[in-house]
Write a structure and sequence with these properties.
Layout: H1 2-21, H2 30-40, H3 55-62, E1 66-68, E2 88-90, E3 98-100, E4 109-111, E5 119-121, E6 130-132, E7 151-153, E8 161-163, E9 172-174, E10 178-179, E11 185-186, E12 189-192, H4 197-207, E13 212-215
Parallel strand pairs: 1-2, 2-4, 3-5, 4-6, 6-7, 7-9, 8-12, 12-13
Antiparallel strand pairs: 10-11
Helix pairs in contact: 1-3
Length: 217
């Protein structure tokens, strides 16, 4: 019980600290706002906004750990970083063109497949273990901050190069096919640490045929 109170206190302190530092980002998508209101009792104003100056609202947002908004037809998840306790996010099948979850350092599972994403920022997701971002339009995928990633699915994008060096927790990757702007198949180069050569040859290569493997420190 004492541990739970301490954790709750830390979350609340973090929320109020963020407020004082003015790092909150406003929610802008009415569909997303309505979903949070209807499913998590997040208060909204008469104008249909989420009031980030309200401490009770911040606490309510900070309690959300699981979010499944697949196929709700939203176009923006701006404001998602206000859900600081979020661990699982499913937002596939929407109309998203960009996604920034860089402040969600508790997030360990993200499925944003089947959107129109051109960019995705997971740089601060130090606990991320599962990332599915396939069937988008992503041209660059940076995983430097994702030290614990285990499962990666990023096929059907526009990647030319993917650097997974140092991602030693990886169990499985599926990264092909990749296409260009005209939807023609293009080659993907995967840069790996030398220690990954055995698992590439024994397992990953058969799931990523036609990808070029390079092993570098």
């Amino acid at each position: 019980m004492t541990h739970k109170l301490i954790v709750a206190g830390v979350v609340i302190f973090f929320l109020l600290s963020c407020k004082s530092e003015n790092v909150w980002e406003e929610f802008e998508d009415s569909v997303f706002i309505t979903y949070l209101h209807d499913n998590y009792d997040i208060p909204i104003t008469e104008n249909g906004h989420i009031d980030l100056d309200n401490d009770d609202t911040l606490r309510a947002l900070g309690k959300i750990t699981f979010l499944n908004i697949n196929n709700i037809n939203c176009i923006s998840l701006k404001g998602i970083n206000n859900l600081v306790s979020l661990t699982q996010l499913y937002c596939g099948g929407n109309r998203l063109t960009s996604l920034d979850v860089s402040y969600l350092d508790n997030l360990y599972e993200l499925d944003c497949s089947n959107n129109y994403l051109k960019s995705i920022n997971v740089s601060g997701c130090s606990d991320l273990e599962i990332l599915y971002c396939n069937n988008n339009q992503i041209k660059k995928l940076k995983l430097e901050g994702c030290k614990h990633i285990r499962w990666l699915k990023c096929g059907k994008n526009q990647l030319k190069e993917l650097d997974i060096r140092g991602r030693n927790s990886l169990n499985a990757i599926s990264c092909v096919p990749q296409t260009d702007d005209k939807n023609n198949i293009q080659n993907l180069t995967i840069i790996m640490s030398p220690g990954m050569k055995q698992i590439w040859e024994e397992s990953w290569a058969k799931w990523n045929q036609n990808a070029n493997a390079i092993f570098e420190e």
